[in-house]
Amino acid sequence: MLVTFIFIIHFTSPVDAQRRGPVLWNTGKTSEANYQARIVREADQAVKTIARQPYTVVHKKSFSGDVHNYESLAYYAWPNPQDPDGAYIVRDGHPSPEYKKYDAMKMFEMCDNMRRLGQAYQFTHDSQYTKAAVRQIRAWFLDDSTKMNPNLRYGQIVPGYDDGKGHPGVLAEAYSLLDVLDCIALLQQNKLLNKKELQGLKAWFSELNTWLCDSQSGLIMNNTKNNLSIMYDVLRYRIAMFTGNQKIKAEIRNAFVPKRLNQQFQADGQQPEELKRSKSMMYSIFNLSHLLEFCQMLRYDRCEYSQYKQRASAAVAFIRKYINNKKDYPYTEIGNWNTYQSQFTEADKLFTSLFK
After folding, report:
1. Whether residue 52 has pLDDT greater than 50
2. Low-confidence winner among 149-163, 185-199, 219-233 (lowest mean pLDDT)
3. Core-most of 98, 140, 172, 288, by most CB within 10 Å?
4. Are residue 57 and residue 168 in the same domain, yes or no?
């Protein structure tokens, strides 16, 4: 029984960690005036936040002994009032009231700010946004006094289990780093990072990718069969795009169809591992989005991806069958259905742009 319980802990993932748009910010709506105005407002706030103090991981009471370590609590881990030793229990689909005490929320906001600042610069060409982005990047990744150690071994801690070690579900938090990589690409394209900074960032992300590939958490992610494994591949592939690691990219491409696509997406469009969840519609849409993000990167890399169309199309059709017809949906969903409708609309747009 204990083994099963720990297995469940390993594969919980936070809602807030999911990215809000596909890789390289091609959301299909960036030309809309209302969208641009909102992004600029949010970017203006981000500029003020970073001017006061950029987000870092060092301002906390560390439970690992090193404030430079990224540390987070498992998203669905709750204090167990019946356990005098302080062990936690997992309530799938129910965010922990203690989750915000650690580094995850800071990383989410930092990554969101990188997206806002980068997009605001694309819309306005106002250098205040890129200057703020560079300052935040230096604080989180480069400055010796504040930079994060490039690993996630203390992420998604569940007090009372595994001697305080982190869990592979931290990948869902690290996935938001894709927005940082997209922002770095914009800064690099506009020659707004110097050679030393660019080398430092490539070294940092290379070390993180090594950890993702070789750590026990990475090995578990590589062999799981739900949405986390596709997130794992998308994150590693995007990092490899930045660092120029062709070996990692080729390994992911070669294994993706038999190990991810055919195992997680059935010919009739169902995603069995996601449909087991208490938020089955949410995770089905997320996993579809991750698949499409992978296709987006393959297109950017000029790699063939037409072999993904049939199963991706079936998944889109399956979700579309129910997304505006909740009463006939035969699976458990405890979340916000209206939010999922919006998320599916964006996924559907990306599908159309990839396979039109």
Report:
1. yes
2. 149-163
3. 288
4. yes
pTM of the model: 0.88
Question: What is the domain count for the chain?
Answer: 2
Q: Please report whether residue 322 resides in a domain.
A: yes
> What residues make up the domain containing 151?
20-223
Is the distance from CB of 321 to CB of 315 less than 8 angstroms? Answer: no
CATH number for the domain spanning 94: value is: 1.50.10.100
Same domain membership, residue 198 and residue 62: yes
pLDDT of residue 156: 87
In a domain, 353, yes or no: yes
Q: What is the mean pLDDT of the chain?
A: 88
Place of tokens 């169902």: 270
Q: Are residues 114 and 134 in the same domain?
A: yes
**pLDDT reading at 354 higher than 80:** yes
Give CA separation, 66 vs 101, 116, 146, 154, 344, in Å: 16, 30, 11, 10, 40
Q: Rounded mean pLDDT of 109-138?
A: 95
| pLDDT on residue 31 | 56
Q: Are residues 204 and 279 in the same domain?
A: no
Separation CA 57–CA 68 (nearest Å): 6
Q: Do the Cβ atoms of 227 and 273 come closer than 8 Å?
A: yes
pLDDT category, 132, cuts 50, 70, 90?
very high
